[in-house]
Amino acid sequence: MLPNPEPIRENVIVYTDPERCLGCHSCELACAVAHGEGLGLLDSVARRLPLHARNRVVVGDGVTMPIQCRQCEDAPCTFACPTGACRQAGGQVRIFEQACIGCKLCAMVCPFGAITVRSEQAFDQNARTHRGVAKKCDLCADWRVANGKAVTACVEACPTGATRLVDLKVYRQALAEARARELAQSHRHMRLPV
Amino acid sequence: MTNHIPSSDPAVKAMLPRAKECGVETVWDRYQAQQPQCGFGSLGLCCRNCMKGPCRIDPFGEGPQYGICGADRDTIVARQLIRMMAGGGAAHSEHGRHIALTLLHMAEGKAPDYRVRDEAKLSAVAAKLGISTKDRPVEEVARDVALKTLEDFQSQDYGTGANWLTATLTPRRLKRLKDAGLLAHNIDATITGVMARTNVGCDADPTNLVLGGIRAAIADYDGMTLATELSDILFGTPKPIVTAANLGVIKPTAVNIAVGGHNPLLSDIVCDVAAEMQEAAMAAGAKDGINIVGICCTGNEVMMRHGIPLATNYLSQEMAVLTGALDAMVVDMQCIMPSMPRVAECFHTQFITTLDENRIPGALHVSFDEKHADEAARKIVEIAIAAFGRRDPKGVRIPDIKNTAVVGFSAEAIVGALSLVNPDDTLKPLIDNVINGNIQGVCLFAGCNNPQSTQDESFQVIAKKLAAANVLLLATGCGAACFAKHGLMTGEATEQFAGPGLKAVLTAIGKAAGLGGPLPLVLHMGSCVDNSRAVAVAVALANKLGVDISDLPVVASAPEAMSEKAVAIGTWSVALGLPTHLGTIPPVMGSQTVTKLITEDVKDVLGGYFLVDPNPETAAEKLLAAIKDRRAGLGL
Lengths: 194, 636
Hints:
The complex is a heterodimer of chains A (194) and B (636). Chain A has a two-stranded antiparallel ribbon. A two-stranded antiparallel sheet of chain A has the order 2-3. In chain A, strands 4-5 form a two-stranded antiparallel ribbon. Chain A has 194 residues and is an alpha+beta fold. Chain A is globular and about 85 Å long. The N and C termini of chain A lie far apart (44 Å). Chain A has helices spanning 26-34, 41-46, 76-80, 105-109, 141-147, 153-157, 168-187; strands spanning 13-16, 56-60, 63-67, 86-89, 92-95, 116-118, 133-135, 163-166. Chain A contains seven helices and eight strands, in the order E-H-H-E-E-H-E-E-H-E-E-H-H-E-H. In chain A, strand 2 (56-60) and strand 3 (63-67) form a beta hairpin. Chain B has 636 residues and is of the alpha/beta class. Chain B folds into three domains: 78-235, Substrate Binding Domain Of Dnak, Chain:A, Domain 2; 247-395, Rossmann fold (3-Layer(aba) Sandwich), CATH 3.40.50.2030; 403-633, Rossmann fold (3-Layer(aba) Sandwich), CATH 3.40.50. Helix content of chain B is 50%, strand content 11%. Chain B contains 26 helices and 16 strands. In chain B, strands 6-5-4-7-8-9 form a six-stranded parallel sheet. In chain B, helix 5 (119-128) crosses helix 6. Chain B starts with 9 loop residues before the first helix and ends with a helix. The interface between A and B is medium-sized, with 15 and 18 residues.
């Protein structure tokens, strides 16, 4: 007998309510700092660290919101990666940076433009390599562990509460329960003919 | 909001691909790069007035509702807004002070390159200020006028209105302002007052703060008025003159010098000196000698007085350099993009700053002061002629786009034209036509360009709608430049766009003035500082009718407002009683209290109010409704 396969749970995603996003870019700054060297914003700027936000606040058709990796369940980037550096792991699409060669294929196939190849080193024109690797939202995995945080840096930084971490299972459950409550009200006045 | 059509100006459309080709970043590229812009700032809910901050108020109500000091959204929005008013007032008033000091130094024989070019204006101004002219030498009168003007920067008598306010507003308006505590006594003190009361821990009452801002805006009106009037004494009062506007005025065969910024003090002297140095330019190979062109309001100043053609307005100043045919651009202050030296660097163009307190990295600085004006101007023209020799003729791309513009309609010129219709009672022809409905009302277009909207578009949409509805159109600043560029300052435009009543009146006056056709559809009244000229006309009408400015069917519109100066002008326009349209949403929407104060509540106190609408079509309808409302008030 085959063992019961373990059900795959959808990855948690960062979601922003465009109605509440004011385009202040606070999430970008928080993201960059959280992926920096453990320094705050002011120290990072003072030391001219090449910090890089993995999200980007954009505007389109009058709607403003940050765009970042949606942790796709059948992610094109994982297929495109020639070195296997990009793959599902630990509840997200993860880039194992030590295996990444910075070829930008993942950046090209990402439908959301959420991947950027960046170096964390200062530019050196004599260097053989830029040491650039693919960067994208990692749901602040390391930062959350190091700082004991339940949510990502962008969620924490959002001044209007527009940005949240969404667990699709919880989200769906909440939707279903809300609709069920509404239907229950209607059904109270309804008798189906036999 | 992103904006996909940068400009409605055909010359700009022709030049934008050139910018791309040259790898030059323009204001529209930078605008796109700034999107989305922070909503807290746009709503006025970000406070940086102290170092406990920055503080932000959550407009949706769940996050913080108070800054760290305890200021709520209303206090924060009001403080930001009135600091903008003070900033605008400071800019205009420094301009005015510079002119007043030049007049004083001239009168004392310390500024030899200046003289009184308009003695009639000097006499008129002296009479307004209560200074005797009888049997007195010009210099002595000029000195008294300068000193009386400088009192507006010095008076410590809080309860007495500044000299230029008392001299130029209607008695009823003066009383209304005084009763509301808004009659500014001293420009410097009033602006300082705004900075003081918005300091941490001072005035927190939004209404009281806004009133303080309005007092500063009234001080701004004072500073602008004295700047305009004293400039006329030194450089001449504008009279109608035919010239041209848009980038096509730049000549491939001349040494092209663009004058930009706001002040006539240097640019006027540059015009004089250039006239003397034509031969040097020709000797350097420029067949057509020296060609001065204007950009922004310095351009408007020399256009109004000398018919110097206007190259372009604020938003497209980079385009003028991109023609590759500007040999020098010389600037004074205000609305000069700090990017200009970076654009000039790609060509042979010498970008020259002149005021020691307005320097731009990358620019060549030729220090200017009014005691050595001629010397500085000469040096600048020499630099331009030398640069001409380095021009790459293959890199010249001047779009063949320009329009005729009839400009120079100072208040005196308008009254002068009317006096040709009725020499005994000059204002009567205008008043009669307002009463009989041939002219429904008057709209003053003012203010800037702003990349939030398509450059020059809203100005034209609103103007054409109002003209068709028989509204007399006046314009200043970058608004006036827009109309000049687009050919709306011609008699032909009147034929094409004016309603029958307006057309008949403009034709009658034009013919009486010997133009052989109608006056232009839009009357160019000058630079943005010259908005005071429009007030002079309104005040003359109000006094003649025995009413206040707020009773007249006169409205104002700044469809593309941008600068702090525009905030100050818009505010005094409201305070003088005019319904005032803004096509740019000011950073006040975070506070319903402040928004209501300036769009509704202020109406009861002062008669004017802000009318905010970025849509030019509906804005035009609202302006027409406001005019109808005023006419009804007069029983018309």
